[in-house]
UniProtKB/TrEMBL annotation:
The lineage of its organism: Bacteria, Bacillati, Bacillota, Clostridia, Eubacteriales. Residues 155-389 form the Transposase IS4-like domain. The chain crosses the membrane at residues 378-398. Keywords: Membrane, Transmembrane, Transmembrane helix. This is Transposase.
Amino acid sequence: MIKACRQNKESVLTKVRAGKLDSAALSISSLVDEIILSMHTSGILKFLSTNIQDKRADNTIIPYDLVWASAIAAKMKVKTSLTDIPYAISDHRTLAKLGYTLIETEGKLGAGLMREGSLRALLGKYQAEDLFNGYNSVVQNQVLPHLNLVPNIHILDCTDLEVNFKNKHYEQSGISVSKRTNSPCRGYKLATIRGIVGDTGIIEDIRFGPINVHDMSLSERMIKHSPVFRSGDILINDRGFISRPVMNYLKRKRNVDTYVPLRNNMDAYRLAVECAIQNNDWSKHPNPKRSQQRISLVPHVGPYWESACPSADVDLNACVVWDMENGQYFVFVTTDTSKLARDIIKIYELRPEIEEDYRQLKDFWKIEDFKSTKINMIAFHIVCVLFGYLFFQLYTMLPDGEKLAGKSLPVLLKVYDAKPQSFVVLYTDYEFGVITLLDMMELYSACGQVVREKIRAVMEKI
């Protein structure tokens, strides 16, 4: 039987001195536990329970914060099954720091913190949109203002999440052609906006749909109305988001400048390349890794890319990139006509950062590893993975983890050396207290022989 205990160190110490001690546990360090604790200490973990409604009965024992913390910790430990969640946090000090801890009356947490059946019942009460909207609300309304983060460069992209093509039971999935294998595939599509913060970034807005929906169709409403954009911001797109009306809207309505590459079958592309060749005014590419490339500015190419309403079209500046090694040309345009070629290409070269996000989310975080065909379970898995990724990114920005900035969680977990910590968690009745080993030694020496024997009997079981 598991019972929930509240933290009350002084009460526990008083009871221990009187000879009352039900159980004790040592703390074992874990990088994931440290990240979860950092999110709790900084107040970020609490935002999940205040922005995503707790739909359980009022008499539940497990704190809602702990449900989310366990689910996210499971994803950070690459445990993708729902059955892994009850066991994701087993360190007593971590549980204690979250404000509660749980203990089996038999003395171990072997049965897990919660039942898988109760988790399934809880998730059955949510629609997928509840969870995706919850993620957006936590990040936009709580995390960014709480940490005073105001990204002004954003990267838009979509990624396909493929499932078993032969399984027709994946709810709300679509059928398309796989970008990996060029064969028919089944699955979903995730659209994200990534805000650049220093040397890292945060996925700050998401949308979700079937894999067969076009990138722009899935993203257009998010692009136009996302609260993460402020006047003067920059949005970097790839070719899948080429839309003159959307660029016009962002520039005129929200004063957000867009950076996007042109397709080689567009009039504006052909004009920009012809002008660059004719002007013959080339400069070195600002990226030392691209020493074989040259760049040239071609201003005012907007009239050569018209929408259905040309009077609403904003002007564009183009950066033409000439790859001298193979004779190819690439054209990147922006609605910010004050930018020179060097500025345009340096800003656009930030875009691969979101591709690295997707690579990690798929290869390490297993965001495509769905254990259920139910859409709400799929949404829960995706959102927990994204929260885990968010927590790690935030951790590297905070004093606790800033020494890890620039490193990835998969690499860190391989080299992390888990060691016993100098903390002991003591349990009496429905209370617990966390003390250091030194405090435990002093407590033991200050007690009478009868109490010492009781403490020894419990401690020998650790």
